[in-house]
Amino acid sequence: MTVLVVYGSRYGATRGIAERLAEILRSCGHQVDVQEGSALVDAKPYDAFVIGSAAYQGSWLKGPVEFVMRHIDLLADRPVWLFSSGPLGTSPTDDEGRDLLEMTRPSQFMELEEALAPRGMRVFFGALDPDRLHFLDKMVRRLPTGRRLLPAGDFRDWRAVDAWAREIAADLPGDVAQGGVS
């Protein structure tokens, strides 16, 4: 089974998740390519798709959205999984006790659920390196509220990413070897 992992990443954390998903899928016997999302990416050669993006202000980045919209009919006929990254910090809940992963589901999840019937949708914690921020994000982070909303660190849960990749691998049609990265 040939799988395309498509991602949108502003600072590299989501790209890292996409690469890790691909690594696990390969270790389980699948042929996998990883590409940054855009309308120019060709979906035709692939049997299945894992599509994700960093989420900002409740929405995916432009590239993965353009990819999906260009290929929506093809994607609707093939196995698809969607993921997002974005929440930062070590707490699974906000100050009011709400689940951060559930609260930060991008608007595209709801929009694409009916159109694509994805086999799975996940939100993962992200990472933030203040030295890589663009000027405006650096300015926001200088504010006390900005530092609280944008804490520095790598909060990605690699065990959760690996487990989800193994779920995807097990759900993909075809003969594959059991395996995976620990």
TrEMBL record:
Gene3D superfamilies: 3.40.50.360. Coiled coil: none annotated. InterPro entries: Flavodoxin/NO_synth (IPR008254), Flavodoxin_CS (IPR001226), Flavodoxin_dom (IPR026816), Flavoprotein-like_sf (IPR029039), Protoporphyrinogen_IX_DH (IPR052200). Residues 3-169 form the Flavodoxin-like domain. It comes from the Bacteria. This is Flavodoxin domain-containing protein.
